[in-house]
Every structure is written in C-alpha cells, then in structure tokens.
C-alpha cells in the first residue's frame, strides 16, 4: 500500500544487469529459473507490487523465444504483473562490460577482498557502450517525460548521467548494492572521475550503510570539484543535485505456511543427504564467490572439530554454493580450492559415513533453500566484505520455530542490524570455531531469545520498507523540483 501511495500515477522503470527470470531450453522444453542474486531477491517483490517495466540483460538461451516484437515479456510467468524488457548483448559486450569491467574491475575494487582489480581499456569501452545501450532502452521505454527510474548496482555507474541528458525531468534513483570503499582504495580505478560524474546524474543515490555513504562523499570530495553539504548529505555538481542516503536492504517476509513442518524438514533434508536423523547440521548458502569467505568458514569447521573431538561424527556442515561468473579465472580457482579443502577435511574427520563437509556446487531454488534453513541448527555467514547479505535475513525469516543460531561476519551490512547474531571476524579462524561450538551447544532458551528479537526486526524492516523509504524521499525531491521549476 505504501508503495502505491508513493508512486500514485508515476511511471516506474527499473534497470539492472541481471534479469529476474531466465528462460532456457532443455529436453523438457522451456524452463524458467530465478538467478541467485541478492539484488533480484530484493527488487522483485517491489516490482510485483508496483508493476512498471524492468529492463535487464537477456541471458537465457531461450530468452528470445518468449519475447514479443519489442523484446518484452510479462512476468512472473505464473502470475504476470509487470513487464520485463530484455536487452541483448553481444558476446564481446558481455565479456568487456560484465565479466571485465564490472566483475574483474569494480567488484573486487569495492569489496577489498584482497583480489586485485583488473582494469583494461577494452573492458572500459564496452562498459561505456553497454551503459549507453541501457540508457537508450530507458529513454525508448519511457512514455512520460518525468518517469521514476530505479537503477540497480555497479553495472550502471554511467547510466544515470546518460539518462539525465535525454530526460532532464526524470527522477533517477540508484541503489548501489555492494560496498563503497574509502577514497584511497577507489582512487586506483583509472576512470574514477568518469564513474563519479556518472553517479552524480542521480537524483538520489542509496547505499546499505551510513559508512558507505560517508566513503562515497569523501571519494567525491577527493577527486571532483563539487559542493558538498555534509549535514544535508547532498552534492551539487554542474547544476545537478544528488542526495546520498543509507537504505539497508531486506527481504519480503515469507507468507507461509510452509509445505513441511520444521521436524519434517529436519528429517527429509538429512535423509536426502544420506545423513543420520539426529545429526547436528550447519548450513551455508552463497554464490561461489571469493568475497563470501567460504574457505575461512570450512577452516572454522575443521578447527572446531580439532578442538572438540566429541563433535566428530555428530556434526556436518552443508555448503550450498551456486556457481557464479565461472568463466572468470578467479572463480574457477576458488571452486578448485573449496573442493580441495572440503575433501581434505572430510579425509581427516569423516567418520562412519558422516562427513564434516557436504559441498553442493549447484543452484537450489528458494523453496529448497528455505527447507535447508529450517533443517539446520546453525547458519554461517562469513563474508570477508558484503554490502548487506540477505542470506542472514532469509535464515531468520525461515525459522518460525524461533530456534537456530546465526553466525554472522562483522564485515557485512547485516551485522549493523542483527546484533543478536554471534558476530565474528571471519579472518580469525579460532573465533569462527568457538562461535560454531557455542552455537551447537547453545540452550534453546537463549536461541529463542536471540531469534525472536532478530525476527521482529526483519519482519518490520522488510524490503517494502526499504523501497518505500527510498520512494518517499524521492517523492519529496520530486515535489521540490516541481516547485522550483515553476518558480524558474
Ligand atoms: C550481487 C550483486 C548483484 C548480482 C548478484 C549475482 O548481489 O550486487 O548485482 O546480480 O551479486 O551476481 P551475477 O553476476 O550472477 O548477477
């Protein structure tokens, strides 16, 4: 309801690289898949609520078969409520813009995860080109001269200014779903000024935490000639005004009821993995990405078994790792290292059919993932750096029995909100091991107390609030702009 009020009568366009539905062809015909993406998890419920048009890269091999002559398809497939407009990229564009500049340049640059960013001129050229193509798609799709354009993430740093040039009266709201580093770190990007100028085409620019906003303001201050009002958190640059604000992202609270009770999920998940019924179980769910601290997590499991031999044969850690960006070398190397580490730990501590690590390098759909959350005794989120991390919030939301323990890295945005989790430094393996043992032996009363307080927070600060607050602020800026346009 809040969203409808904020947007009353306005046209809404969303731009993101990743599409919410991927159509692909198999022997069984055309299948639809949801990608493993924090961004899609968050933005999709918002789009369902406010209709409009979502512009994204068509990445599935059957994506072209289901669109109309304007490359549009109504989604979700089962209950169409908004339009997905697909943009097609050539292999070369995808290589330079997505794999190259976005994921070998900006991704490691912003995450400070000790993977060196790679900057190539040829990637940059494609990044500029693809940003222009998406900006053109926004302009082509817009039916009014003042739409609300919601731009998502680091793939589109240049697009806001490009859209602003063609649609000067648009309200452009951008959310940066990953961290923003400090000025020194960001400064190694050879095109830092261009990126900052592009972002200052926004009316409103959102980050997960106040700390990322502060880093952004300081970065702009360091590298561009602008006027910054720190109190008001605004930047004026070449006649444009950009408001910078924190909006911690969240999830849609599950509607339930679940198809299985907690007891049923505990039993069925263990049976499906060939594990004993009464086994203690940990769960990790991530894209197979070097920012997620998967190696550190497995090492913590190993260390816990070293310190507490009584846990050997009584505990398994199940890691679901969705393959991601796997044509990049860093990602292939990570997969090899994770597999090798899991194997080594299992050789060392595997006992009578119980492996300490169960590794699934596969895509699981969200219903399956929530069954696993419900079957687990503990969930480990050990990102080395993460804008928010929605797995932490999904785990909490899935636990309507108010049991289960969350171990959470201090380097996630989520740790700013979920104080009742066991907060750890994932680089400190002993600390992870201690937290794991503490979680596995925590009395139910304490689990319940922690879970209750985290559940009420996630229920209240859900993704509709996230979007609602951004749109409310945008509506205010829009009114101000209309008034000053009248005065001019
Ligand atoms: C993060 C990014 C998203 C991205 C997702 C999945 O959550 O912030 O923009 O969609 O990872 O990554 P992928 O490269 O598969 O889209």
UniProtKB/TrEMBL annotation:
GO molecular function: alpha,alpha-trehalose-phosphate synthase (UDP-forming) activity
Keywords: Membrane, Transmembrane, Transmembrane helix
Organism domain of life: Bacteria
Gene Ontology BP annotations: trehalose biosynthetic process
Membrane as UniProt keyword: yes
Family recorded in the similarity comment: Belongs to the glycosyltransferase 20 family.
Name used for this protein in its record: Trehalose-6-phosphate synthase
Region of the whole protein represented: 254 to 741 of 752
């Amino acid at each position: 309801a809040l969203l409808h009020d904020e947007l009353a009568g306005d046209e809404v366009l969303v731009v993101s690289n990743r599409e919410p539905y991927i159509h692909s062809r198999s022997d069984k015909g055309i299948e639809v898949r949801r990608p493993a993406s924090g961004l899609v998890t968050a933005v999709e419920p918002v789009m369902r609520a406010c209709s409009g048009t979502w512009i994204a890269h068509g990445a599935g091999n059957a994506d072209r078969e289901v669109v109309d002559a304007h490359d549009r398809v109504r989604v979700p497939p089962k209950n169409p409520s908004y339009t997905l407009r697909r943009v097609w990229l050539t292999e070369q564009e995808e290589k330079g813009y997505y794999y190259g500049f976005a994921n070998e340049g900006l991704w490691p640059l912003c995450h400070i995860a000790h993977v060196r960013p790679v900057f190539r001129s040829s990637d940059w050229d494609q990044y500029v080109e693809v940003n222009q193509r998406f900006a053109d798609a926004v302009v082509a799709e817009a039916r009014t001269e003042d739409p609300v354009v919601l731009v998502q993430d680091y793939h589109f740093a240049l697009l806001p200014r490009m859209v602003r040039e063609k649609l000067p009266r648009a309200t452009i709201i951008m959310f940066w779903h990953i961290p923003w580093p400090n000025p020194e770190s960001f400064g190694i990007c050879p095109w830092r000024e261009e990126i900052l100028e592009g972002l200052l085409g926004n009316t409103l620019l959102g980050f997960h935490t106040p700390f990322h906003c502060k880093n952004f303001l300081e970065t702009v201050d360091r590298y561009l000639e602008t006027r910054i009002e720190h109190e008001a958190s605004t930047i004026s640059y070449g006649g444009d005004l950009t408001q910078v604000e924190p909006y911690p992202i969240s999830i849609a609270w599950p509607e339930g009821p679940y198809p299985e009770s907690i007891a049923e999920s505990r039993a069925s998940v263990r049976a499906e993995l060939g594990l004993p019924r009464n086994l203690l179980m940990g769960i990790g769910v991530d894209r197979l990405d070097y920012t997620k601290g998967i190696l550190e997590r497995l090492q913590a499991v190993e260390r816990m078994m070293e310190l507490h031999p009584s846990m050997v044969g009584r505990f398994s850690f199940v890691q679901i790792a969705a393959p991601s960006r796997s044509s990049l070398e860093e990602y292939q190397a990570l997969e090899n290292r994770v597999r090798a580490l899991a194997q080594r730990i299992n050789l060392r501590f595997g006992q009578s059919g119980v492996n300490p690590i169960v590794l699934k390098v596969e895509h699981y759909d969200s219903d399956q993932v929530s069954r696993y959350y419900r079957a687990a005794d503990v969930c480990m989120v050990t990102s080395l750096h993460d804008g928010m991390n929605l797995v932490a919030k999904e785990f909490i939301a899935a636990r309507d029995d108010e049991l289960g323990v969350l171990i959470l890295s201090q380097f996630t945005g989520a740790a700013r909100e979920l104080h009742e989790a066991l907060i750890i430094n994932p680089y400190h393996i002993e600390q992870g091991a201690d937290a794991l043992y503490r979680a596995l032996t925590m009395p139910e009363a304490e689990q319940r107390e922690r879970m209750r307080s985290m559940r009420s927070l996630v229920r209240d600060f859900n993704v509709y609030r996230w979007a609602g607050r951004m749109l409310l602020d945008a509506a205010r800026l829009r009114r101000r702009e209309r008034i000053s346009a009248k005065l001019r």
